[in-house]
Amino acid sequence: MELLVVIYIVCATILTIYGINCHVMTHLFQRRVAESRKRDAADLEAFYGSQGLTVANSACARLPRVTTQIPIYNEANVIARCIDACAAMEYPAGMHEIQVLDDSTDETRDIVAAKVAEWRAKGVDIVQVHRPDRKGFKAGALRYAQEFCKGDYIAIFDADFVPPKDFLLRSIPYFVDHPEIGFVQGRWDHLNRDESLITQLQAVGIDGHFMIEQSARNYNGLYLNFNGTAGVFSKKAIYDAGNWQDDTLTEDMDLSYRIQLVGYDCRFLIDLAVPAEIPADMAAFKAQQFRWAKGSIQTAIKLMPQVMMHKGSFFKKFQAFMHMSHYGVHPIMLFLAILAMPVMAIGNIGFEGMPFLVFITLLLLSCSGPNRLYMTAQRALGHSFWKTLALIPAMVLFGCGLAVNNTKAVIEAVMGKQSAFVRTPKAGVNGGVKQYKASRSKQHMWELLAGSWCMIGVVCYFADGHYAVGPFLLIYALGFLGVGAMTVGNAFKWLRNK
């Protein structure tokens, strides 16, 4: 029993470390963001000079040939919008090719074919690429089409993204003047932030990742990951790093780390915003989270030994570990929630054996870390302080409630279980033309069960006089019950609309 208590305390300590690291990332962002933004602006100004950012600028003669790739699988609701946006991007004539990597098996193929024909008639160099099979899923499609693309640099957009017209003009010059750069990453923005509570919460989380974490990593010489879309790669860097590989579900993180391990630099462009559609369906969001969680742990298992052996400071390697393993907090959260009652039954595990002031200090530091990160990101983006503050409690519950979903992903990754790349269904911001649904499972039953178990624990803790622990267990209970209930609600909604 004492061993159980020790394990429980160790797990709580690990969560504290991850929470405090959010303060570290926020600090790293704040100390470098101003000068890094000035550096990015100065680089563009040095390239374009006084003539400004336009294809009429004589400096554009220095721009290399670029291929834009749009990897898709059954995206009938959003692909036309994406193709239109990519075809409308400004770039010197004859220097931009578009490849629609179409693995679709439904009417998406016809939509793409019509759009390709429409834009080819207008003089745009665009092709629809079909593969004999879906081997390797997204990574396989990118690897396949790359062999015959015309560009020396490859921009990548998922089907739900809508790149601005000046995306290439604002990203490619960094490669021209800095050949050591292997990839650049734009910042994700949102087309449907206010569609529902779920989309609002996701927007806050995504903004925190891009505004704070990605900026902090890049601005302070830490490892940066490509986020799968809204960025550009050097084709040479892709080959030098071993090309796209499909042995993880996060081929983007895998390749971007390998590119840096072979000596390339990278650039995160905080002011180059690319809007995209956020999943509005809980099941779709959980499917996306599952893929990211499993893939990042797979990548950590694959690459952390190389990272540890590579040159660089201990801090850089530590942050790489924190980055790739951050979904590992979910099994720990679930473990703490489920074992709360057994640990209480052992007795003498409250605060009696720990100085109360130290406990409260660590607790506040760890719990406030993510919230400070989110609030700082929203403030930097100019969003309402009070509106963001009102969302923070729901963010906390949301994060806890995903622990069951993401724990399954982490366990599968650790056990080496392979699974298919499951795309995130997109409805289109105007309702789309076809209903896609994420795969349904009985996972919500485990979430509701975990929530009920934690709620019983809340009652027991209060009844036993542990008034400081009960509220934290209540957060877990409400999180599990909330995510489980929303999953069931979305399923019924889909059935009604079927």
From TrEMBL:
**Which source organism?**
Megalodesulfovibrio gigas (strain ATCC 19364 / DSM 1382 / NCIMB 9332 / VKM B-1759) (Desulfovibrio gigas)
Q: What is this protein called?
A: Putative glycosyltransferase, group 2 family protein
**Positions of transmembrane segments:** 6-29, 332-365, 385-405, 446-467, 473-492
Keyword rRNA-binding appears in the UniProt entry:
no
Read off the InterPro entries from this record. Answer: Nucleotide-diphossugar_trans
Q: Which GO terms describe its molecular function?
A: glycosyltransferase activity
Q: Which GO terms describe its biological process?
A: cell wall organization
The record describes its membrane topology as:
Multi-pass membrane protein
- Taxonomy, superkingdom: Bacteria
Q: Where does the protein end up?
A: Golgi apparatus membrane
Q: Which UniProt keywords apply?
A: Cell wall biogenesis/degradation, Glycosyltransferase, Golgi apparatus, Membrane, Transferase, Transmembrane, Transmembrane helix
